[in-house]
Please model this.
Amino acid sequence: MDITPDAPLCSICAELDLHQILLDDIPRDNAIPLGSLSSILKKSDQCGFCHLVSLVVRRTWILDKFPHLDLSGIECGLFSLDCGCLRNPIPEPKKLCHRLSIHTSDRPREIYSALMAAHSRLSLEIQLMEEDAFKFERPADLHGRRVNDTVDVGLVKKWIGLCEEGHGDICEGAWWLGDDRRLPEFMRMVDVVSMAVVPAPPACRYVALSYMWGGIGAEYWTTKDNIGERSTPGGLNMANVPDTIVDSIQLVRQLGERYIWIDTLCIIQDDLKDKIKQIHAMDLIYGGSYFTICAAGGASARDPLPGYRPRTRTPQQHIEVVQGLHLSVPLPVPIEALTLSAWSTRGWTYQELMLSCRRIYFTGQQVYFECRRDIFCEDLVAESMRLASSTQPLRYSGAGNIAFPRKSPMDVYLTSYMSAIELYTRRNLTVESDIVDAITAITNALAKSFKLGGGDPAKAFRFGMTLMDLEHALLWQHDPHMPQARRSLTDEGSSQWPSWAWAAWRGAVRYQGGGVYAWIDTHSNGPRVTETLIDSWYLVDHDSDTVQLDVRRTHRAYVLPIPQEAMNPYHSPQGNLDPSHLALDIHRPLEPGTLIFRTTSSRFKIIKRGESSARLYHDLFNILSSAPSPSTWVGSVILPLDPAPPASLEFIVLSRTSASPGVYDEESLGKFYGGCMLYVMAVSQNEGLMERVGLGIIHEAAWIASSAQEKVVFLR
Model:
């Protein structure tokens, strides 16, 4: 029995009747005044309830990053609302308020961006612990739970069982794998019973591990020299194996499972052919796993799974006894805890996270379980079958995954692709040349799910770019806050990857709509192509053969009235290219990755649109034309600032789109109408080969007036 004495209270908090507040439904508008936030922070070492309020505000608002933030004038109040519900409530249902909420009269603007980046929950809550549920004549569901030095493995097993029993096929592996989910012969597993690396039984149930190598040496890798020994019972010696792997193997054994897939042990690390086969099977490995252990609590494989063994984590839960009630500040939700981890910054872990149907996250805060329907954690009692999933407090706070319904429209795949690329390119890779390999599992899943390239990933994607919707895939932009730099790579004999592919460049990329050309930091929806303007696309493949691509076409559909002066719109060159046009120079073969297509080209002056923050490495430039009047602003383009672009650039037309206000001179060219803009690529040219410089949009009337010339483009 906990005999912790009541915490002292200040005069304001002593007037609160917390028992009654937790019984009543107190709306936010009727919040009980607690005084100024500044005074609460000052009293936090003297008053137990002020201490809780202070903790939740400091953690949620990340105040440690803003030591000089002005908090004066912010008033706080206390309210309570229903939070979660039970499917079959007890007879004579009572109010189900398990948390107290703190209302603030204001939130400093300076912290908002930090909160978004940290995926912090904006609500400020204090939870009632499960040991006091009986005082309100209600079950323990949805109350707080104590987090101990070590995780209860039985609780983890219960989470897995609840998912398996209650969610049916939704969480039973990735459906893109089809009905035949037999593992290929080249796959191996660690048998935790015989302690050997064995060929994977075709229909075995297995666990996968997602972790960071962290510069660990090669002494524990499986190699050509030790695979024979490791394949015999007892041959896998744990003496040199780092703690993350040791703990994961023991956890799997304790959970009653037999097989686990661990890359460094199951792939022969000095066998290139074996590595390539395994890399291209990652969608099967993680999508087909029973669950994936995500070691998100350390910085390398040397670190143990936090909380699996004693003294491997420091409990961070703070509980105060106030008016006889045990109250605590909820620990971070899964997405917030993962955002704080080094694991979530690594490139390889992205596809492992997104494709696994069930995940167990070991973080420094606590252990979380996430599947496609539920989220469980140590500090919240949420395992009751009486809980409605849609109202479970953690329901929308997971890390998410790519799960395609069986009959999704094709546009869902394109949205998923663009979103995945944006999130993935924010992460880091130790080896730059892994940039495409580390997302191959996701592109494989997309190809198989939507039958892209006939279901063959090799035909559907090149350099990480989707070929079926190439005219959409080309519309990426560099993150303006990151410098532009090419990757130094060797790809199947080429010195560099093509400039039109996002993978050829370091740093994050964005897929944004037309609004980005009015304000570079806007968070608009993805790019919209309203009409295909390239009739035929060709690509020099890895065998140096030029092949025609099957790019999906978009036909123009007007949604707004078209002014009379626009009834003679821009028309693109039509028809397939003659074979003689597919070679730049018979004495100089084209490198793999060269895109060939026919379009029109024109040159325009550019001018920077005003002064930007010093933190920007890319900025907006106005595209200027001499028609209809000198220096008319006819479009916008985003360009790198280092090196400074020349006074004029060559542009080529890609596709048609709509416009947003603020991207051209509407007074000279007229109000925008549906499809009035052309997506254009700014290019540089060297001996007939073009490279991407930037991407923008230009009004079609200005393009027509520029007397653009038809051209066969060799884009590399």
